[in-house]
Amino acid sequence: MNGSGPDIFEAISADLDREQSTKRRHFTPALLIALGVVALLFGALGIRQDLFDQPLWRIATQGGLWLVCLILFPAIGIGLWFPSRALRIGIATVGGGLALVSALGWPPTSPTGDGGGPCAMMLLSVGAVFLGLGALSGAFGQRRASSSTFWVASGIALGALASITWMCPNDASDHVLGTHLAPAVGLAVVASLIGMALHKRLRRRGR
Amino acid sequence: MERYVDGDRRAFERLHAALEGRLRGFLIKLVRDDAACDDLIQLTLLKAHLARERFRVPGGDPDGAVQAWYFAIARNVAMDFLRDRHRKDKRRASGSEEGPDLVHELADQTPNVQERGEQTEQEQTIIDEVRAAIEQLPPKQREVVELHKLRGMSMADIAARLQVREGAIRVRAHRAYRALARVLQPKKQPLLGSADSKEDHP
Q1: How far apart are CA B170 and CA B202, in angstroms?
Q2: Which residue among A30, A188, B117, B170 is buried most deeply as judged by most CB within 10 Å?
Q3: Chain A residues near residue B45 by CB distance under 8 angstroms
Q4: Residues 6 or more apart from A155 whose CB is under 8 A from it?
């Protein structure tokens, strides 16, 4: 580094730090708004009454899922954090595992035949709000590679899933699979497609 | 490089560590001035940083593409430096024959629009003729010249990429540059750089 002198190296490093600082400044309000939306939702519709009667490990996995969807996935998607490939695969796997276990429990509860309910619609509505927040904040266009949109989209879907898991007390596996997990997967796919379209437009416009 | 473009400072540090030595070697070969080399490296890094959003991998070897991109910027920086130095030397030489000429010393030293236009046209003609001459080379020799001179790769890297012995690559390069030297005017040889350089010439 002495060869090229400390000045330009430090100037570029400082510029990159400033960029990251700007991203954090934009991310924080978006995170607070997302938390506000979740708080309003729980305030209006209430959380499940047996939330704290669940086993501690299950509450912990649900807490882990909130961490993954609100912090880790968006941080990777918008370029606040650059984990190695192996770590990214690990985080994605853990995120998927947390989603399944926190929603279904372990072992999964037997099906009751009651696979219906308004949960799917509520999940998709919450997801739409998160998706709108992501789109308006420019989260989908922060990184050059379009694959970054999958992280943001997955965060949105997991956030909607975590919300509904804390609101719906019905743990029957057929109910959870049909009206929580399946819509969450669908939401992730739709959010990814919308995210990629927005990414293309934002990158063309130069963010 | 992608991570650096996205703002990862650690990625920039790793890139810098990987490229700095090679850039230094490349620039020293071009300008043969150790003192100026540090400034030229800084200028290269700065220009690359400002233009990093425009970097694209054309396909194939991404590491090679990153290096070639930096080397292309470094080459332009070096050419500007050499052109500027040549202009100053010329002015100094003409000034020393007649005694110091304060008017010329104080005058605007950048070429005027007409001179710049003529210079650009002349350079473009030379570039076109060099390109045409390269196109006439046999495919294997043309490939080596393009990778060596236009993409800034070393002989070792070219040999690894084409999966051929380095000695064979050097032989191809030697034949190619000899053929180009026969075809082109002597004044165009500096654009090719090290046709006579000892390091990359077999």
Answers
A1: 5
A2: A188
A3: 4, 8-9, 12
A4: A68, A69, A70, A72, A73, A74, A77
Minimal CA separation from B124 to chain A, in Å: 31
Sequence length of chain A is 207
- Measure CB to CB from residue B6 to each of A9, A15, A79 and give the nearest one: A79
Verify whether the Cβ–Cβ distance A143 to B6 is below 8 Å.
yes
> Can you tell me the ipTM of this complex?
0.81
- Find the angle CA(A184)-CA(A187)-CA(A189) to the nearest 5 degrees: 115
Q: Give tens-digit pLDDT for A35-72.
A: 999 999 999 999 999 899 999 999 999 999 999 999 99
Helical pair A119-137 and A148-165, crossing angle rounded to 10 deg? 140
- What pLDDT sits at residue B35? 87
A134: Cα separation from own chain's centroid: 10
Beta pairing partners, B10: none
- List the alpha helices (DSSP H) in B52-200: 62-98, 102-106, 113-135, 139-145, 155-162, 166-183, 189-192
Smallest CA-to-CA distance from A191 within A103, A119, A132, A123 is with A132
pLDDT digits (tens, 9 = 90+) for B44-82: 999 999 999 888 877 677 788 899 999 999 999 999 999
Q: Which CA distances in Å does A141 have to A49, A123, A200, B157?
A: 39, 25, 8, 35
Of A3, A13, A15, the CB nearest to B41: A3
**B21:A3 CB<8 A:** yes
Cα B102 from chain centre: 35
